[in-house]
Automatic annotation (TrEMBL):
Belongs to the chorismate synthase family. Homotetramer. This is Chorismate synthase. Its cofactor is FMNH2. Gene3D superfamilies: Chorismate synthase AroC.
Amino acid sequence: MNSFGRHLKFTSFGESHGKAIGVVIDNYPSGIKIDYEYINFLLKQRQGGSAFSTPRKEEEKINIISGVFNDISTGAPICVMVENTNIKSKDYDKILRPSHADISYFAKYEIYDYLGGGRSSARESLARVIAGAFADFILKEVNIRTYASLCAVGKISVDGFAFSEEEYINAQKRQINALNHDIMCEAFKDEILKAKANNDSIGSVVSVGAFGVMAGLGEPLYDKLDARIASAFMGFNAVKAVEIGLGSKISTLNASYANEKFEKIYNEKIIKQKSSIFNNNKNSNFISFSKIDKNKNLYLKTRNNFSGGINGGISNGETIYVKSYFKPTPSIFKEQNVFDFDLKLKKHSLVGRHDPCVGVRACVVLKAMMSFILADYLLLNTSAKISNIKKIYKGE
Ligand SMILES: Cc1cc2nc3c(=O)[nH]c(=O)nc-3n(C[C@H](O)[C@H](O)[C@H](O)COP(=O)(O)O)c2cc1C
């Protein structure tokens, strides 16, 4: 499937070593100002060129083909293309790289553009980031903010799952967008460089937080918000597990401890959340609330947020927290036993340009996917109840 979304949809196209990567976004509302600087700001976070990422770095000049007039969206499909300008196809031999998509694409299609991994390359995620930037323009109107940062590299990991908005913002200022502390960032960097020095690669975990999400977003049963997030995140290259809120650890608990502990709040003041056994982040502030009674200005908030902001597939007004677990980059320079396309086994050392730890460049892609899902569900929600329809058509 090359398309994603329920109401707001995007379709990505292009291969790693093809002419271009692009995206078509359909059902995008009219009247939205397009901030080109913001799109470029997000794209920069996905680019390589540092000691901690692939050396492949592209200029990535965005070319908006349709759907925007005088910098404002028109309601027509938005089409954005970015030319591939830094291709080194000679680095790619006809071999089935262990744990890459070569073998399964070859088995399914027989005709396979193996150059740079073709369509299975993470170069495609450029399209996801552009779609996410357009989604952010919608989210900005209702003050929803999404972030993603590294919370583990190899065996070194930051405790907890509920990070404050400030922590994500601080992480972005560090060289590899690492949560927690400058010292943690240095430890992550050391792990990546160690793997690289051994001609190897290393796995990682990325934490995503969505702040300011109102209660009531999501579709019940077959298209739950958490199901959609898990599907989108698992659908991203090299992701092997996804956790919402406390994640798999919740299976070790009794409900008397794990259940949400809701509190009534009568105004929007920020409540400081002290650490719990699973959350050692003393500064963690839960700052979103589900507004239960508009007239009384009454809110409910939970003290633990183990559900990661989602109950019954619908947002409960708390911050949404998701973790994605990435495997180590399959293409490594260490000599391995590999099969070629004629199924001959040989010893092979790869050449070319590869990420030593995919989590570094993956953060912004997951942020973008989270933004796109929230924008999609925000638009879907407008038809969830008759009062919304009356508001639009009768001004009631
Ligand atoms: C941001 C990002 C960058 C990646 N860079 C590389 C790379 O340089 N070399 C490589 O072999 N795989 C890389 N991968 C992983 C492959 O794209 C992925 O393992 C492959 O498509 C097989 O899919 P699967 O791991 O989901 O099964 C990257 C993944 C991500 C998310």
